[in-house]
Each structure stands twice: as C-alpha cells, then as structure tokens.
C-alpha cells in the first residue's frame, strides 16, 4: 500500500511520519450511492486517532451522512466523492486535530480540560487547543477515545457548568465548583504567599550564582543524595554508582540557567538519562520556593525522562525533600496547591498519589516529616477520593 507524509507541506522523502494514501470506493447507485474508505482504519492507526473521527470530519465538511461500522471495518460517506477531494480533507483534519500547533509534530494525544480539547504534544510538551468552533468537536466530546483523558477529578466542575472555563491558572481548579472541599482548597491556597512575597536576595534563590551560593547548594545536594543512596531501591546504582548522580547534580547547580536541551545532553553523556533517580537530583538542584511555576516550565523535560510509576514516585520523592527539608516554612502549607499542579500537568497519576498517601516512608525524608507532608496533603487526597466515588456513581448511573 502506498504511503505518504502525514504533514501536507513536507516533501522530505525521509520524513518519518507516514500514513497510507486514502482509497475511495464508490458503491451503489441513485439515492443509495455511497463512498467507502476501505483503509480508513489503517490511516487512523497512523494518526493515533479513532477512524470515526476523520470519517465524521468528512461528513461535517461535505454535509453528508456518515456510517462507522467498526465491527466490519467499513467507514462510509453517503454520496459519490472524489478520492483526491477526500485526501485533501484528510490533510485538513490532520492540520486541525492531529499536528501540534507549536512544533507541527503529529505525536499528539487529545486531552479534554475545562470543556476544551487540547493537543498534548509528546515531542515538545506543548498543549495547544483545537478549533472549538468545528462541528467535529461535539462528536469528540460525546465519543472520547480510550486514551482520551476525560478525568472527572479534573473536569467535574466544568461538566456541571458546560461551556465555561472555571479553573484559575494558578490553582488549576474550579473555584466555583459544587465540591465544597475543592472550593476550600482553592480559597485557602489563594491566601498563601507566593514566591514573590519573599526577598529575592534569600540564599535559596536558584539564580544566585555566587561562589558561596553554588557551594552551599552542592553541599546540600550531596547530603540529599547521600540520603537517597541509603534509602533508594538500588536499581540505578548497578551501572555507575552514586558518582554519576553527584556529577549530574554538580552540573545543574553550577549552571542553573542551562537549557533543557543542555540538561538532556548532559544526562545522556553521564548515562543517567531515563533513570528515575535523576529526576530526584534535578528537582533538588533546580527547584526552589517557586516550585509551581518551575513544574510548568520543566514539564516537557520531566516527562521526557520517563513516565513509569518509578519516575512518578521519584518526582514525589524529590518534592518531599524540596518541601519538607529545603523550604518547609515556605512550602509546607502550600502542599495541596503544589500537588494539584503536579496532577493537572499529568506528572503523577492518581493511583501513584493514592499509594503514596497510604503510609509514611523514610525513603526521602525522616518519618516525622513524611507524616507531616501526608497530613498537609490530606485535603488534596480526599478530593481525589471523593471525585473517584462520584465518577463510579456516574458510571453506574450511565450503565443503568
């Protein structure tokens, strides 16, 4: 089967993203004439989208009825339609609902957030909205794919108040939600001082590159990494020992302004790229009291390191030390807000949070600090539990 580049404007014969060229087959006659697309499932698989999406898109653009027979692998558009016309419309669908709006890479997933469909790019980490005015949007909302992140934990308020975005950028939660606990978390977080409240000349400021500040950060990082070495699970130490993480930490503390590309290159050079423990080092070396904004800034890099449960636990471990040891006076009371940010950025899944909350651990901090962190996180954990119960109840109602 002939393949073509997914991106319409790409003429590069070595372009890595390919899809089958669309095939159209006209069947029937008179009022029953229709166009069958026999390879729509293969095309959709190349685009990581359900085949019903581009088929329905054709119907929206052509003003025609469509039929999706997934069991028979038949996707039909009523009427006789030219194959080249359908191919052109397919490229339009790709531009609007597949390609990243920032880097134009097709490695995207669709994510629903506050009644907006976003293209979540795995290549550059950007989240760009689709054209919400298009008729296909309604179909997608009603027919989310299996990978569609339609989590009531994040969207329960917006589902009750369809059409409006009610999540403040700083809290990433709906202040006017029916959920009393959610409102209380956001209300209390709004009264907390942010990083700008503190003197920019404090010793913890990461942009302080004086020799004394760098030395202090290196000493603290060495202590932190020593504790991680004692309490860690050891699976990263077999191929180079602790020194490679010390060296990675030295690089980060000496050059806090290094770009994400530079950090990735150094991690690969040292052999720690993809290692979950490197995330602990990165958070310890680069993050400070402005952790919420830093989580947003470094999200693409954190995700590229890895997204397994171990990587997610390491993110939480690094945050435990950052919050409970480095800046407890600044960050302890802001734990719910920090964790809400982590959750909404898809850095840590709900299941990992729930497992983390089950019991205190001495892996990253002392037992007392670990208990304190979990106590501070209790409102957020309860919010997750309540939302899960509500989701289960809604699903039972739907099935009935």
UniProtKB/TrEMBL annotation:
Signal peptide start-end: none
Record protein name field: Eukaryotic translation initiation factor 5
Annotated GO CC locations: cytosol
PANTHER family, A to Z: EUKARYOTIC TRANSLATION INITIATION FACTOR, EUKARYOTIC TRANSLATION INITIATION FACTOR 5
A Pfam short name: W2
W2 domain residues: 238-394
Region feature Disordered, mapped onto this chain: 142-178
GO BP of this protein: formation of cytoplasmic translation initiation complex
UniProt cross-references to SUPFAM superfamilies, sorted A to Z: ARM repeat, Translation initiation factor 2 beta, aIF2beta, N-terminal domain, Zinc-binding domain of translation initiation factor 2 beta
GO molecular function per UniProt: eukaryotic initiation factor eIF2 binding; GDP-dissociation inhibitor activity; GTP binding; translation initiation factor activity
Compositionally biased residues, Basic residues: 150-159
Composition-biased stretches (Acidic residues): 168-178
Family: Belongs to the eIF-2-beta/eIF-5 family.
Record's keyword terms, sorted: GTP-binding, Initiation factor, Nucleotide-binding, Protein biosynthesis
CDD domains on file: W2_eIF5 (cd11561)
Species of provenance: Dimargaris verticillata
């Amino acid at each position: 089967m002939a393949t073509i580049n997914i991106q319409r404007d790409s003429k590069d014969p070595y372009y890595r993203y390919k899809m089958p060229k669309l095939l159209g087959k006209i069947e029937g006659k008179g009022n029953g004439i229709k166009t069958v697309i026999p390879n729509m499932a293969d095309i959709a698989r190349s685009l990581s989208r359900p085949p019903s999406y581009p088929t329905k898109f054709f119907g929206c653009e052509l003003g025609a009825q469509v039929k999706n027979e997934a069991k028979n692998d038949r996707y039909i558009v009523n009427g006789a339609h030219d194959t080249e016309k359908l191919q052109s419309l397919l490229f339009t669908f790709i531009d609007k609902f597949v390609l990243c709006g920032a880097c134009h890479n097709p490695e995207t997933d669709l994510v629903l957030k506050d009644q907006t469909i976003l293209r979540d790019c795995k290549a550059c980490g950007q989240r760009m909205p689709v054209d919400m005015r298009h008729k296909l949007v309604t179909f997608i909302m009603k027919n989310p794919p299996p990978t569609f992140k339609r989590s009531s934990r994040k969207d329960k308020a917006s589902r009750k108040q369809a059409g409006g975005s009610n999540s403040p950028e700083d809290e990433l939660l709906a202040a006017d939600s029916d959920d009393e606990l959610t409102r209380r978390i956001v209300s209390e977080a709004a009264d907390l001082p942010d990083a700008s409240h503190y003197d920019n000349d404090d010793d913890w400021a990461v942009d302080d590159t004086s020799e004394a500040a760098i030395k202090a950060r290196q000493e603290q990082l060495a202590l932190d990494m020593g504790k991680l070495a004692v309490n860690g699970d050891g699976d990263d130490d077999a191929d180079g020992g602790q020194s490679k993480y010390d060296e990675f930490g030295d690089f980060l503390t000496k050059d806090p302004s290094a770009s994400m590309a530079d950090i990735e290159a150094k991690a690969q050079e040292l052999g720690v790229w993809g290692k979950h423990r490197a995330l602990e080092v990165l958070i310890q070396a680069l993050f400070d009291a402005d952790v919420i904004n830093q989580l947003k800034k470094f999200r693409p890099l954190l995700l590229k390191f890895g997204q397994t449960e171990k990587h997610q636990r390491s993110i939480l471990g690094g945050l435990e030390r950052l919050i409970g040891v480095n800046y407890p006076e600044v960050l302890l009371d802001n734990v719910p807000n920090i964790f809400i940010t982590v959750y909404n950025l898809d850095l840590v899944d709900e299941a990992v949070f729930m497992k983390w909350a089950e019991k205190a651990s001495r892996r990253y901090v002392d037992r007392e600090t670990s208990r304190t962190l979990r106590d501070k996180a209790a409102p957020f954990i309860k919010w997750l539990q309540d939302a899960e119960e509500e989701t289960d109840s809604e699903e039972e109602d739907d099935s009935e």
